[in-house]
Amino acid sequence: MSRSIDLAVIPGDGIGQEVVAQGLKVLNAVLPQDVKLETKEYDLGAQRWHRTGETLPDAELEALKGHDAILLGAIGDPSVPSGVLERGLLLKLRFAFDHFINLRPSKLFPNTATPLAGRPDIDFVVVREGTEGPYTGNGGSLRTGTPAEVATEVSVNTAYGVERVVRDAFERAAARPRKKLTLVHKNNVLVYAGHLWKNTFDKVAAEYPQVSTDYLHVDAATIFFVTQPERFDVIVTDNLFGDILTDLAAAVTGGIGLAASGNINPTGAFPSMFEPVHGSAPDIAGQGKADPTATVLSVALLLRHLGYEAEAVRIEDAVSADLAERDGATTRTTDEIGDALAVRV
Amino acid sequence: MSRSIDLAVIPGDGIGQEVVAQGLKVLNAVLPQDVKLETKEYDLGAQRWHRTGETLPDAELEALKGHDAILLGAIGDPSVPSGVLERGLLLKLRFAFDHFINLRPSKLFPNTATPLAGRPDIDFVVVREGTEGPYTGNGGSLRTGTPAEVATEVSVNTAYGVERVVRDAFERAAARPRKKLTLVHKNNVLVYAGHLWKNTFDKVAAEYPQVSTDYLHVDAATIFFVTQPERFDVIVTDNLFGDILTDLAAAVTGGIGLAASGNINPTGAFPSMFEPVHGSAPDIAGQGKADPTATVLSVALLLRHLGYEAEAVRIEDAVSADLAERDGATTRTTDEIGDALAVRV
Ligand SMILES: CC(C)[C@H](C(=O)O)[C@@H](O)C(=O)O
Ligand SMILES: CC(C)[C@H](C(=O)O)[C@@H](O)C(=O)O
């Protein structure tokens, strides 16, 4: 394990700046004295685009490559046309750095609100594929804007891409107490991609006899997310299904304010990127109202990825303890929550 | 309005036969004396496929065309490879009869269980596109079964197909008290299809100034389904997103046992098909345990489609009243529920 961390920070838009500041505060607090943390901020997002028309210039992409990891706050603003920053910045990073593991843990922490009656015991992790499926940007439109328009979106799935994420998910499942892995797809309709996913899953499963497996269609999976979420341990799924399921997972585990994520390249060939699942929430930006917990939990994922397991666990325990003691009546500012977590770790 | 109904009935597999019997019982009970009901049963589904290898032969497709409407129970059995009956029968019917409106109402009836705390007031309808998107079967696989396999699924979207479903949804929204229509897509990632959907939606919206409109990404929509479902009135969406959202909607409104659906061709060029959203549930088949309510509600949609509005409302009111009086302690058989509803209408 390296005793220094060279971190790129992309605060981004809206509440991004505020939550990232708390993430860094907790990171500084948890790191052992002898670990040298260096951070470099990158000015990317809506303001930059308005100013220069740039989303992610090559020089900055190149520079980002040199860091050990990236911490991102939030990107997006209603003033930017839909798709510009998503494709030009967020997805560009995932693709350029081959972030084929999009890791999204879901846990119902003590004392947090869930819309579900009966407070089921939720503790699962979604391993979402990050570089293929309908996210590749393949497709196009013909006779655009006319009554004869045809627009296509192509979901691209390769044995190479599917196998590596499926293997990663089996590894993660094997390392957890319950050792259970569920594949989610829609192989009764999307038969070509579905066969590839299912066959790959079954093939790799043979190498992990200790992991129990399960298959669900994506529509059925959403039902279980609300009626029986405790049945899930690790879920592996396609890029788009993973996008949908992880927002739903965040909702049932107390909201998007607590959902962390990692865009991971486990080979280490490129830096991995960690970010809260939530967006830039321009309506509450700059008011100290944003909950930085999802960012702090993303820092835990970052530390785990870089080999600082004990520190990651300390952050997660601090969040648990903090949530257990939060009382609904007092609202704390972004800064106060960050301080409380920094003290606890 | 014709004073006769020539109905094709496809009981199908598992609990299909049982629930369809109750649907027909209620249909017979609700129809005015002078309406002549003729039914013809079609033997299609898993057993037929095992016996003959056929899913939907041309002759039967041709014969089905001659009916006023189709009532379907449930199709599918674990003994049939995934995709065979879905593509070869269910989707074949939707495509052959150009069922471009897949109508799925969601209502939280009195006294029914919802996994959501606080019992929100849920009463919305999803207008799911039924003939395009990733369901077209376009796509394929190359070097199948090798480490170099590439499998694609193509989502096909046309101005023709999108505009007709969007118009239908605006009509339905305009006819409801709240007059609100939400478009659900993922236009920040699926930019080609997303633009076509959004532009068409905005264009048609200009003709319906009385309808208030809204746009949500599909991932965000799943959050609102569990945190704020009362915000929805009518939703219009793509075939795959509609598939996912309507299972989730069924789950939050008391389960798939109550969810009805219509595969509708509003032009009348082909018969429309009505079916419960649930599957064939082979584990409880033949035991009189299936709840036929979703099928009975599908019969109401069928009647409404054929112009029997008063009769449709009578069925829906009967279901409401029946559910309001159900007590959790006594379980009734499929037959008993059917009888109770037949008496009420
Ligand atoms: C902003 C968008 C491109 C992104 C996605 O669809 O992956 C987001 O929804 C997420 O889940 O990280
Ligand atoms: C069985 C399957 C083909 C079907 C679909 O995906 O449309 C089902 O899930 C539904 O929603 O009617």
Please report the distance between the alpha carbons of the first and last residues of chain A: 20 Å
- The H-and-E topology of chain A, N to C, reads as EHEHHEHEEEEHEHEHEHEEHHH
From the coordinates shown, what is the CATH architecture of the largest domain in chain A?
A: 3-Layer(aba) Sandwich
Q: How are strands sequenced across the largest beta sheet of chain A?
A: 2-1-3-12-11-4-5-10-8-9
Oligomer type:
homodimer
Bound compounds: 3-isopropylmalic acid
- Count of DSSP H/I helices of chain A: 11
GO molecular function (chains A, B): 3-isopropylmalate dehydrogenase activity; magnesium ion binding; NAD binding
Subunit structure (chains A, B): Homodimer.
Pfam families (chains A, B): Iso_dh
Main location (chains A, B): cytoplasm
Notable traits:
homodimer, 345 residues, alpha/beta, Isopropylmalate Dehydrogenase, 2 domains, ten-stranded mixed sheet, two-stranded antiparallel ribbon, 11 helices, 12 strands, 40% helix, 21% strand, globular, binds 3-isopropylmalic acid, amino-acid biosynthesis (chains A, B)
What does this structure look like?
The structure is a homodimer of 345-residue chains. By secondary structure, chain A is of the alpha/beta class. Chain A folds into 2 domains: 1-101 and 259-345, Isopropylmalate Dehydrogenase (3-Layer(aba) Sandwich); 114-253, Isopropylmalate Dehydrogenase (3-Layer(aba) Sandwich), CATH 3.40.718. Helix content of chain A is 40%, strand content 21%. Chain A contains 11 helices and 12 strands. In chain A, strands 2-1-3-12-11-4-5-10-8-9 form a 10-stranded mixed β-sheet, with helices on both faces. A two-stranded antiparallel sheet of chain A has the order 6-7. In chain A, strand 8 (180-185), helix 6 (191-205) and strand 9 (212-217) form a beta-alpha-beta unit. In chain A, helix 5 (159-174) crosses helix 6 (191-205), helix 9 (293-305) runs antiparallel to helix 10 (309-325) and helix 10 (309-325) crosses helix 11. The first copy, chain A, is globular, with a radius of gyration of 20 Å. In chain A, 54% of the residues are buried. The model of chain A has no long low-confidence stretch (mean pLDDT 96). At the A-B interface, helix 4, strand 6, strand 7, helix 5 and helix 6 of A face helix 4, strand 6, strand 7, helix 5 and helix 6 of B. Strand 7 of chain A pairs antiparallel with strand 7 (150-158) of chain B. One 3-isopropylmalic acid sits between chains A (86, 90-91, 243) and B (188-189, 219).
